[in-house]
Write a structure and sequence with these properties.
Layout lengths: L11 H11 L6 E2 L16 H13 L12 H12 L8 E7 H16 L5 E5 L3 H10 L3 E5 L10 H8 L7 E5 L12 H14 L2 E6 L8 H14 L2 E7 L11 E8 L5 H15 L6 H10 L2 H33 L6 H4 L4 E3 L4 H11 L1 E2 L5 E3 L7 H12 L2
Parallel strand pairs: 1-10, 3-4, 3-5, 5-6, 6-7
Antiparallel strand pairs: 2-8, 7-8, 9-11
Length: 394
């Protein structure tokens, strides 16, 4: 049997991580993997997470299963964080998942169950695992224009033109904030235009929100998702706690299925429970319980929000510092977009051969499409990166 297996494509980011680890140079810089790092190059455990884990450890009396959809307190807390009061709770079905990736996977599974002929429209570019999962599930994908390689901003005209080719029932996959890999985001006027098109053509919105709090603030980063959820007839929302709570290894995510028809909620909820049962049965609980403990305690929540705000401002500061260094060293403002982008990532528009040159000559590692993780920098390495970008001729 095993001899019939075929080698699978190597994940480019994981491959890049290994290349970085094997590089003996002391001054190498890792801008590849999508994990937040502080100025010391460490992905810290947040203060509120430590405190919540201590509380869970002291109070928990059993490791018995919760339910197929996880602890309802986690769902309620996350729904409130992401949606506020944009949608009545009675219209929302929700289930805990193993990370945001698990939520994305379950959402695609639900689409395939409900409408096997549905195509999924995906931004060009997008997070590579979106495409990998869709391919594995055998679902048809259609790329829509999103990023303008010249301006390094959203190609909104191209996006709308491409989405206008979608058929009723097709799914439009949208990044809720801090677009990965480009860092370029729609404004709320543009979001409303996308919503209008979705409603006019009978499309289904799916929002992947993995970086709430990393862009312009917790409520600001949720504004687009709230606008979508409250203005379309049906939508799916896949959320991750990996970044904003720093619980990467705890695999903590949530999938929401929202319908403006309250009577649909029971069927949607049952379907989410069924999908969990088929794929992994009961979802992980530890990370979800830590998150709900934080969100449901006023002091812990305030401390978490304050630390998250420090993280956000740190990344914005690094963006501005890098844009300023590049302007000074290149004599051009062509890199000003870096300060305008939001989240951990920006795509700087370097050809693959120049990305390779950065790696070989300067020990700077970024993904081949020139996506770099801003959080992989610090005040000392920003000038080094800026000079290297100028030296290789980007």
């Amino acid at each position: 049997m095993f001899e019939n297996l075929k080698a699978q494509p190597t994940d480019k980011i994981l491959e890049l991580m290994k290349l970085f680890a094997d590089d003996p140079r002391d001054q190498k810089i890792d801008l590849g993997v999508g994990v937040y790092k502080n100025a010391e190059g460490v992905t810290p455990v947040m203060r509120a997470v430590k405190a919540a884990e201590q509380r869970v450890w002291e109070d928990q009396t059993t490791k018995a299963y919760t339910s197929l959809i996880g602890d309802p307190a986690f769902s309620d807390a996350m729904i409130s964080l992401i949606l506020g009061d944009a949608v009545p709770r009675a219209n929302i079905a929700a289930a805990a998942t193993p990370g945001g990736t698990g939520a994305v996977r379950q959402a695609f599974e639900l689409v395939r169950m409900a409408n096997p002929s549905a195509r999924v429209y995906v931004s060009n570019p997008t997070w590579p695992n979106h495409l990998s999962i869709l391919k594995y599930l055998g679902m048809e994908t259609v790329a829509y224009r999103y990023f303008d390689e010249e301006t390094r901003a959203v190609d909104f005209g191209g996006m709308i033109e491409d989405l206008a080719t979608a058929n009723a029932g097709d799914v439009i996959l949208l990044h809720g904030c801090c677009h990965n890999p480009t860092g370029a985001n729609l404004n709320l006027v543009e979001w409303q235009a996308v919503i209008d098109l979705i409603n006019e053509r009978g499309l289904i919105a799916m929002v992947d929100i993995a970086y709430q709090g990393f862009g312009d603030g917790l409520d600001e980063d949720a504004a687009a998702t709230r606008l979508v959820a409250s203005n379309v007839s049906e939508c799916l929302i896949a959320a991750s706690c990996s970044k904003n709570f720093g619980v990467y290894r705890e695999r903590t995510g949530l999938l929401m299925a929202i319908s403006q028809e309250t009577s649909q909620q029971g069927l949607n909820q049952g379907t989410l429970a069924f999908l969990n049962r088929q794929n992994f049965s009961f979802p992980p609980d530890h990370g979800a319980r830590v998150v709900s403990t934080i969100l449901n305690d006023q002091a812990l929540r305030a401390d978490w929000a304050a630390e998250l705000e420090d993280v956000r401002l740190s990344m914005l500061g690094l963006r501005q510092q890098l844009a300023d260094e590049l302007q000074k060293r290149s004599g051009s403002d062509r890199f000003a977009f870096i300060a305008q982008h939001r989240g951990m990532f920006s795509r700087i528009g370097a050809a693959p051969e120049l990305v390779m040159k950065l790696r070989q000559e300067h020990g700077i590692y970024m993904v081949g499409d020139s996506r770099m993780n801003i959080a992989g920098l610090n005040a000392t390495t920003v000038p080094i990166l800026a000079q290297a970008i100028v030296d290789v001729g980007i």
